From TrEMBL:
The keyword Phosphoprotein does not apply. Residues 262-338 form the FAD-binding domain. This is Salicylate hydroxylase. Keywords: FAD, Flavoprotein, Oxidoreductase. It comes from Rhizodiscina lignyota. One of its GO terms (molecular function) is FAD binding. It holds the Pfam family FAD_binding_3. The keyword Signal does not apply.
Amino acid sequence: MKPVKPFTVAIVGGGAGIAFSPNSIEAMRLIDPKIREVFLKLATKNEEKEEEATWINFRSGERESQLIAKVRTTDRDKTGLSSVHRARFLEELAAMVPEEVAQFNKRLTYLESSGGGKLKLRFEDGTTASADAVVGCDGVRSQVRRFVLGEESASQGLAFSGKYAYRGLVPMERAKISLGEYLAGNSQMYLGYGGHLLTYPIDKGATMNVVGFKDMDSTWDHETWVLKGRVVDMRRDFVGFGETVERVVKLIESVDIWALFDHKPASTYVKGRVALLGDAAHASTPHQGAGAGQALEDALVLSCLLDDERIRSACDTSKAFAAYDAIRRPRSQKVVSTSRQCGMVYAFKGPGGDDVTKIEEDLTERFEWIWGVDMNEQVRDACSLLG
Ligand SMILES: Cc1cc2nc3c(=O)[nH]c(=O)nc-3n(C[C@H](O)[C@H](O)[C@H](O)COP(=O)(O)OP(=O)(O)OC[C@H]3O[C@@H](n4cnc5c(N)ncnc54)[C@H](O)[C@@H]3O)c2cc1C
């Protein structure tokens, strides 16, 4: 057994269906093979054997659902679009964390340096804690980000991506009666002018998950980012997207609306012994299904750095954090920008407009650099910066 390190790191944070790509699943395996096992146990895949490795079948909504591109994952496990219920997966992950190292249901309200290199954390319930280092994984509206970026966080933080998404669920039996077994049971994205609609199976095939993305020209003026939506508005928004999309939308009985924001590139993810991880560092739009995967990659690289034998004391943690920032910032920020571009391509606003040949070329290449990364190399590169 490895010796326990003589310093404490406080990890702040922990946040319906979510799909994980090959790089995400590989990061899970490298962090702890049990995480991948739990994921694979819970995951729902495309129903048909020959669609197992399909990430998404991209179709033109209005052109009778004509197939534009079949994007497949190229990993050994043929994971395709494997999705889990977020809360269920988190429950299983939480059960794997030893009780003595985690406290749940704490909400950070303030973080400050408290002298002697220690950091003081204040929580909403009036309690406080101190740590030698802090990792903020507290999501897109992170408190820890404020500490790390200060003014920059306030002045160049979040940007509305110009899209909102309707999220709804349809019992698979009903979906299959209306759409047929194949379209309902396997992941499809219907592209159109100014919007796109995604469907895929969840709950081990009992439910069809629907996400309808719509462009808007104005800014997002609502106080909250998640609103109760109206089915009648969704139907109106997707008129002209073709018969299949209209059938999908008719099946929806209730929807939520999510405004989609992302982060402008931060100049750093670290400040001394405080680091940002996941959406707190680089929140992205969901168009490449890559946001949570980047959080997993962050976690892998950071944990390997902290585990390195050259990180011996609390003072060394800032060295590990600096190496983490150098390796993770460029890649994760590139994901944020390509994800936004991808949303444009889906809405026929990319460089190829509505030219289906150009869209096919674009989508066939757009995912591989994210999925095909060598995670061990990222870890090696980061550790080599420790000197
Ligand atoms: C509509 C939509 C669909 C998406 N689909 C996918 C997908 O299919 N695949 C994918 O890879 N990504 C997807 N993403 C992106 C993905 O959800 C995020 O990248 C991922 O959840 C980031 O994980 P995180 O742990 O960094 O942040 P979160 O999941 O936001 O978790 C942050 C956690 O911190 C907690 N927290 C917040 N503030 C505090 C505080 N002050 N103190 C303590 N705790 C706090 C929150 O309660 C939450 O539990 C999607 C995003 C959206 C909006």
